[in-house]
């Protein structure tokens, strides 16, 4: 946000306002893209042919198809004119674009159709709840039903005239009341859902109950609240615990919570997107069905330095239960890091991260995320490197394949931890600050080691994804995973923050750490230690594009490391949002 006034002055005279936390450029909202810049567009990350996208909405599976709706500006490459665009897929890889699912047409949504969720009713009927902006600019919650249940594409949605079904009454701020969750059904036969809100600096998950999905009554207390500012896009769902009857990696459908034996073998996740920081945080905890209260486990910081799905550019995420593969799948939006004039020029802005399977770790201390297995079907030509020592200060190029659109899996072995730098406990809550201070160019003891990618041959342009190991005391170590895009391009206007998170592994015991990175022209999406720590960044190389983008392995620490194994695949380009019949 800090750069916004500058951007505006560059554009000359655009009026600046902040609306639902998106910087608003009224003059640009309806300027259609004439040409679409292809160079940095993604190959296999979800993206429409042009214009602005943000939050994923109402993901679901229905009659053989995965549905993804998303916030979309049909008229321009900046936020505005928001509707629910709609795409379907049989495999989460190839996508077909349909006509918009939900768009302003009634008084209760005439000024905008904002984010929301889908719920599959017990009779199999999918229903969408979304935030509409009414004629008084109030945020209200509406319901929409499919016009034709026999149509697996769910092309047409009917918005009953009894909308809005939830109003911002009884002291709720009508400008801070949005993004209803998927509903869940309690043992008492009542539906529940939460809507994100705030009261001064207190973020709130406002709880509602309903018998019939039409008349909703606000509960006397919220599901949960915290002093972290507006809570956007809440997501609340059960996860299986290890040792239960189902495998801990299996998903749990919120609909199953009616069954008390299922409810006894799960924990719950509450994720909120913090408008104040533009990052997301989650806690794992316990939900009392009779009192309708969620209590995070004490082990988890319930604030804005707690656990994050992704320590990079990833926001407004939403999960859904996939009944085909019995897993929970997570979608999240990544915005651009270039400037608004850049977006205008390229004619597009925003992508969705690769859908991730999400589940509770075996020990129950965090969630694990992993790209859905289907994306392996895009893997083409590959290269292998194995058992290669990388001495302190050395690096080498991984040649023989095109890395600009690729999937890289690497495993590093650390023989000796003696030289690890001392960890200052003050860094405990500031991985990002630590990575900024000790970036990939700052020599270390054990690390920084990892990948330089989207790198030009002369290495002038490069993005680093790496690990660095610190010593806490004689027996305990801290592993930092970091993404350093400070040299990703020469363009000075581009937002290039170092992003980082700690990795919860006992490196003294494992001596090994794995990294998987999905590279896609302007996307770098990394999964550390099998999905314990994830970081997505957007970069805009000028030289390291197409066949001139290279991959290197580097070690800028004193200690030698070994690359035990690296496999890197070129990725094919799936069908991405072609119109049906085109
Ligand atoms: C409903 O969808 C089915 C399947 O696509 C189609 O055959 C039927 O004609 C549709 N009905 C109406 C009323 O549009
Ligand atoms: C309601 O929320 C809006 C948007 O965040 C804020 O500008 C306004 O001050 C809030 N109003 C009150 C009464 O808190
Ligand atoms: C790479 O290693 C894998 C696993 O060992 C092997 O199956 C594959 O054939 C190797 N590929 C090449 C190109 O050597
Ligand atoms: C080292 O730190 C770990 C984790 O904080 C702690 O459990 C352990 O007791 C410490 N060991 C010593 C020798 O201080
Ligand atoms: C994405 O863009 C950057 C650069 O403009 C902003 O700093 C972020 O706040 C923004 N992220 C979101 C989630 O809007």
Automatic annotation (TrEMBL):
<feature type="signal peptide">
    <location>
        <begin position="1"/>
        <end position="20"/>
    </location>
</feature>
<dbReference type="InterPro" id="IPR013320">
    <property type="entry name" value="ConA-like_dom_sf"/>
</dbReference>
<dbReference type="InterPro" id="IPR050551">
    <property type="entry name" value="Fructan_Metab_Enzymes"/>
</dbReference>
<keyword id="KW-0378">Hydrolase</keyword>
<keyword id="KW-0326">Glycosidase</keyword>
<dbReference type="InterPro" id="IPR013148">
    <property type="entry name" value="Glyco_hydro_32_N"/>
</dbReference>
<dbReference type="Pfam" id="PF08244">
    <property type="entry name" value="Glyco_hydro_32C"/>
</dbReference>
<comment type="similarity">
    <text>Belongs to the glycosyl hydrolase 32 family.</text>
</comment>
<feature type="domain" description="Glycosyl hydrolase family 32 C-terminal">
    <location>
        <begin position="375"/>
        <end position="570"/>
    </location>
</feature>
<feature type="domain" description="Glycosyl hydrolase family 32 N-terminal">
    <location>
        <begin position="45"/>
        <end position="371"/>
    </location>
</feature>
<keyword id="KW-1015">Disulfide bond</keyword>
<dbReference type="GO" id="GO:0005975">
    <property type="term" value="P:carbohydrate metabolic process"/>
</dbReference>
<protein>
    <recommendedName>
        <fullName>Fructan 1-exohydrolase</fullName>
        <ecNumber>3.2.1.153</ecNumber>
    </recommendedName>
</protein>
<dbReference type="GO" id="GO:0033948">
    <property type="term" value="F:fructan beta-(2,1)-fructosidase activity"/>
</dbReference>
<dbReference type="InterPro" id="IPR001362">
    <property type="entry name" value="Glyco_hydro_32"/>
</dbReference>
<dbReference type="Pfam" id="PF00251">
    <property type="entry name" value="Glyco_hydro_32N"/>
</dbReference>
<dbReference type="InterPro" id="IPR018053">
    <property type="entry name" value="Glyco_hydro_32_AS"/>
</dbReference>
<keyword id="KW-0325">Glycoprotein</keyword>
<keyword id="KW-0732">Signal</keyword>
<comment type="function">
    <text>Hydrolyzes inulin-type beta-(2,1)-fructans. May play a role as a beta-(2,1)-trimmer during graminan biosynthesis.</text>
</comment>
<dbReference type="InterPro" id="IPR023296">
    <property type="entry name" value="Glyco_hydro_beta-prop_sf"/>
</dbReference>
<dbReference type="InterPro" id="IPR013189">
    <property type="entry name" value="Glyco_hydro_32_C"/>
</dbReference>
